[in-house]
Amino acid sequence: xxxxxxxxxxxxxxxxxxxxxxxxxxxxxxxxxxxxxxxxxxxxxxxxxxxxxxxxxxxxxxxxxxxxxxxxxxxxxxxxxxxxxxxxxxxxxxxxxxxxxxxxxxxxxxxxxxxxxxxxxxxxxxxxxxxxxxxxx
Length: 137
Hints:
Blueprint: E1 3-8, H1 22-39, H2 44-48, E2 53-54, E3 57-64, E4 73-82, E5 87-96, E6 99-109, E7 111-112, H3 126-136
Antiparallel strand pairs: 1-4, 2-7, 3-6, 4-5, 5-6
C-alpha cells in the first residue's frame, strides 16, 4: 500500500497557460514526501536540520499524461524503494478523476553533511522505508 497525500492545485502552481508548471510537480512531490515522514512520527524540524546528515535528491524525473488545472483535486500516491544502504528512491503517481495524470521519481542519497561522503540511511528512516514496502507487498 502506498502513502496517499491529497492536494488541491492552486493558482500559484500554474503557468501562463493555466496548467501546472512542470517544476511545481516536484515541489508537490516533496510535500507528499514530508507528509509521509511526519505520518510515521519523524520530527521534520529535527530531520531537515540535522547537522550530521543530509539526504539530497540526486535525480528527478517527471512524466505528464494530462494537464492539471487550478482547482483540480489530486491524490499523490508515494512509494519509497530502498536501493542500497545509502540510497533510496520515491515513486509518485498523481491521480485526478480516477486516472494517472503524472508520475515522478526522486532518487535520494544519504551523505555526511560535513564531509559530503556517502553514509548509511539514518535509522529513523528505516521504519518509513520498511513499512511502506511491507504494505506494498
